[in-house]
Design goal:
The complex is a heterodimer of chains A (377) and B (58). Chain A is mainly α and 377 residues long. Chain A is built from 17 helices and no strands. Chain A has one domain. In chain A, helix 6 crosses helix 14. The radius of gyration of chain A is 20 Å and the shape is globular. Chain B is mainly α and 58 residues long. Chain B is extended and about 50 Å long. Classes of the chains: A mainly alpha (377), B mainly alpha (58). The interface between A and B is large, with 89 and 50 residues.
Chain lengths: 377, 58
C-alpha cells in the first residue's frame, strides 16, 4: 500500500455543480442517443450497465476482494453478501424463467474438463490482477493502471478462448444441467445458505461484520440483475462482449474468422457484422466502465498518482489479463456470467465454477507476491 | 501520472472502438430493433452470452 501526500494547493477537490451537471447531461445524452439510434432496449441496457458500474464502485463492492479476505483473514462478510445477492436474483429469476421460458433464457452451460480447468485458472488470475470480469472493468474505469493494462489483454484472451472453445469443449463435457421450478429454487437457496453458513462458521474470531454499504450493494445489484433479465432476455454477462470487440478489430484489419467454429457460427458472425450498440454485453460493459469512472470522478478519486510496479509485475499483469480472458471462455463465464448469473438462474455449472475458481483464488493469492505485485509475507 | 490520465486514455480507447465499430458495422436501424423489454415480447431470447454452449467441432 502506498500513501499519498498532498500540499494545500494540490488537495483534490470534488467537481463543482456545473461540472457535475454537464457530465450528467452528457451521460443522459449518450443513453438517449443509443436509444434513438439503435433502439430503446439498447439504450436501457446501457443505462443498466451504468447502474452496475455506479453500484460496484459506489458501494466499493466486488468479487475478488471478498474472496481474498475470506481466504486470508477468514472474513466472510463480502462472500455472504454475494451469496445473498445471488439468492435474491434467483427468487425472481426462477419463476420468470419457468413462466416465460420462450422469451427469457438462463446462463446455462455444460460442466466439463475444460470448464473446470478454466474456472480454476480464472480464479488464480483474478487474484493476480485483483480484478475479475466486472472488477477489471471497474478498476480500469477508475484509473487503476493494473486494470487498464489488463483489460485489452483480457479482451484478446476472450476472443482467442472463444475461437478455440469448440475444441476445448470436445475434450469432454456433461449435458447441460439446469435446476428449474420451485424445487430447483429451493435447492439453489439451500445451497447458497449452506455455503453462507459454512463461511460464517469458518470466520476468524471477532472478524464478522457486514458493512452497511454491502446491504446497499446487494439490493441495487440484485435489482439491476433482475431488470437485465427482463430487458435483455438473458442474465448479466461480461466476457462475450470483450471478445467481440477484438473480433471486430480482426475483421476490420482484414482477418478471416471462418476458421473458428465459434466465430463462424451464424449468430456470432451476424453479431460481428452488427453494431456493438446492439450487443447486450458490450453495452453493459461500456456502461459499467463509464459508471465506475463517473463515481471515481464524482468523489475526486482520479487525482491520486498511479502506483509504481517492477517490470516483472507488468509482464505478469499482461499474461494474467490474457489468461483471464481465455479461461473465462473455457469456463463458460467469469464471476458474473458463470457464478452470479449461472447459480442465479439454476445452472449446475455455476456451482462447479464457484468451487474451482475459489480453489484457484487460493493459489493466485499465494502467487501474487512472487510476481512482484505485493510484498512477500 | 495520475488515475485521471489512465481513465482518459481508456476513454480514448473506448471512443476509438466505437468509431471502428461505426465504420465497420452494418448501419443501425432503430425501426427493426426489438421491443424495449424481452419479457412479454413474444420473441425468443437471441442475445449472445458467455455461458452459451459453442457449436460442435466439424
Amino acid at each position: 500500500m502506498t500513501t499519498t501526500s498532498y500540499t494545500a494547493a494540490s488537495i483534490p477537490t470534488a467537481p463543482g455543480r456545473l461540472s457535475r451537471a454537464m457530465v450528467l447531461t452528457g451521460v443522459g445524452a449518450a443513453v438517449l442517443s443509443v436509444a434513438l439510434l439503435a433502439g430503446p432496449r439498447y439504450g436501457l441496457l446501457l443505462l443498466i450497465g451504468l447502474g452496475f458500474g455506479l453500484a460496484l464502485e459506489g458501494f466499493r463492492f466486488g468479487f475478488t476482494g471478498p474472496w481474498r479476505r475470506m481466504i486470508l483473514m477468514r472474513d466472510p462478510s463480502g462472500l455472504i453478501a454475494q451469496l445473498v445477492c445471488i439468492g435474491i436474483v434467483a427468487v425472481a429469476a426462477f419463476p420468470l424463467l419457468a413462466t416465460h421460458g420462450s422469451e427469457l433464457k438462463g446462463a446455462h452451460a455444460p460442466i466439463g474438463v475444460a470448464m473446470i480447468g478454466g474456472a480454476f485458472v480464472f480464479g488464480a488470475c483474478m487474484q493476480v490482477v485483483l480484478g475479475c470480469g466486472s472488477g477489471t472493468l471497474v478498476n480500469a474505469g477508475t484509473g487503476n493502471a493494473v486494470g487498464a493494462v489488463a483489460l485489452p489483454f483480457f479482451a484478446i484472451g476472450s476472443f482467442a478462448g472463444a475461437y478455440h472453445l469448440s475444441w476445448w469443449s470436445s475434450l469432454g463435457s456433461l449435458p447441460v444441467v439446469a435446476l428449474s421450478g420451485t424445487d430447483g429454487l429451493m435447492v439453489t437457496l439451500a445451497g447458497l445458505a449452506a455455503v453462507a453458513v459454512l463461511a460464517f462458521l469458518l470466520r476468524a474470531k471477532g472478524v464478522y461484520y457486514m458493512p452497511a454499504r454491502y446491504v446497499g450493494a446487494i439490493l441495487v445489484l440484485a435489482g439491476l440483475a433482475i431488470l437485465h433479465l427482463v430487458v435483455a432476455g438473458q442474465p448479466w454477462g461480461v466476457v462475450y462482449g470483450l471478445g467481440l470487440w477484438v473480433a471486430k478489430g480482426v475483421v476490420a484489419a482484414g482477418g478471416d474468422l471462418s476458421g473458428s467454429a465459434f466465430w463462424a457460427a451464424p449468430a456470432n458472425a451476424a453479431q460481428v457484422e452488427a453494431s456493438l450498440l446492439t450487443d447486450i454485453t458490450s453495452l453493459t460493459d461500456l456502461g459499467l466502465i463509464a459508471g465506475a469512472a463517473l463515481v471515481a470522478w464524482w468523489r475526486a478519486g482520479l487525482a491520486s498518482p498511479v502506483g509504481k510496479l517492477p517490470a516483472k509485475a507488468w509482464v505478469a499483469v499482461v499474461i494474467a489479463g490474457l489468461v483471464l480472458g481465455y479461461s473465462s471462455r473455457l469456463a463458460f463465464g467469469c464471476n458474473i456470467g458463470a457464478f452470479f448469473s449461472g447459480i442465479g438462474t439454476g445452472s449446475a455449472h455455476g456451482w462447479v465454477w464457484f468451487v474451482a475458481a475459489f480453489a484457484g483464488s487460493w493459489a493466485g493469492i499465494r502467487l501474487r507476491p512472487h510476481l512482484g505485485l505485493e510484498a512477500r509475507r | 501520472m495520475t488515475r485521471l490520465h489512465v481513465t482518459l486514455l481508456l476513454a480514448l480507447g473506448m471512443g476509438g472502438l466505437l468509431v471502428l465499430d461505426r465504420v465497420q458495422s452494418r448501419p443501425l436501424n432503430p425501426y427493426t430493433a426489438p421491443p424495449m423489454l424481452a419479457l412479454g415480447s413474444g420473441l425468443a431470447a437471441s442475445g449472445a452470452h458467455c455461458a452459451a454452449p459453442p457449436p460442435a467441432v466439424q
